[in-house]
């Protein structure tokens, strides 16, 4: 899928390492799981802006059932951001779980010399660290060597990649249409400069774009890197999303729309905004304890991609 789309844009396939063929297909394998959480997510999104009368609401429910095979409950259709987020996480993490890295580090405790020697002498183990939490117990940090890794029945990279590949193609198709109007994009969203004619078609069904601003529009947008942006809408609402930084009340006083905008406009890649947390909750892995400690993180522009 992705290769065909890439070839239309001038990309060339230089090497092919493996080819897989699947003679059996199914469109019902995950239907029950997807339908359960998609129903919750859709109901928790509230009524579409086009539904203001009882007749329009009834039409919306009928059309959704006809298109998706899911019957929404009118009494449950109410905006509930928390409930919607939980359902969205259940849907998105499902594909991530299929693609989970099985070469994960493990921690094993042993309290006998034979068990200790067995762990260290096993050729399939890659020992990363050994320490002694107590005088009688040894903690061994290790993971299986790749050549000894057994097949995990709870992962399937093809289920994960096929779904995300289709989503990526949908995103790229709209980005190609928008061209240089695109200001920023993530895995499932696009921020772009609208001229009133280039707006992508929107809808209420799976795979269709929706307006995340509820009829508002962005007046000023700045980005200091991937997953690092802020904007202000025409109604005066500001939003700041930065990966790796918890924007609580204290941090938001320093790191906000105005400070990010000022930093981006300065074009100063060396300038930093320090954020101090006097009691960050963290853990001491070797002592197996949760503690509070001071932490200072530095925010800056990052354009490394």
UniProtKB/TrEMBL annotation:
GO terms for biological process: DNA replication. InterPro entries: DNA-dir_DNA_pol_B_mt/vir (IPR004868), DNA/RNA_pol_sf (IPR043502), DNA_pol_palm_dom_sf (IPR023211). Residues 70-173 form the DNA-directed DNA polymerase family B mitochondria/virus domain. It is an enzyme of class 2 (transferase). It catalyses: DNA(n) + a 2'-deoxyribonucleoside 5'-triphosphate = DNA(n+1) + diphosphate. Coiled coil: none annotated. Its EC number is 2.7.7.7. It comes from the Eukaryota. GO terms for molecular function: DNA binding; DNA-directed DNA polymerase activity; nucleotide binding. Keywords: DNA replication, DNA-binding, DNA-directed DNA polymerase, Nucleotidyltransferase, Transferase. Belongs to the DNA polymerase type-B family. This is DNA-directed DNA polymerase. It comes from Araneus ventricosus.
